[in-house]
Input
Amino acid sequence: MFTRILVCCAMIACACRATAADLDAGKAKVQQICSKCHEAADWKGQSEAQIQGKIQGVLAGKTKHPKKLDLTDADVANIAAYWASTTG
Output
């Protein structure tokens, strides 16, 4: 029984690391795409989830944006995590 619990915990820990946002990748995308029009202050007080939701709204066409964005789900997560980390 203990072995099963240990294996499950290890699997969960690996899954969490695999899906964790990459702040360096987020920073690179922000510098490449976002920072031409946006600053960290634009996201002040917003959580990672809120920022991610706003970006997804742009991608879904629900939120107007001057440029068409071509981002993967990982890009969105990375960008949101980076912006959230810079606004404290």
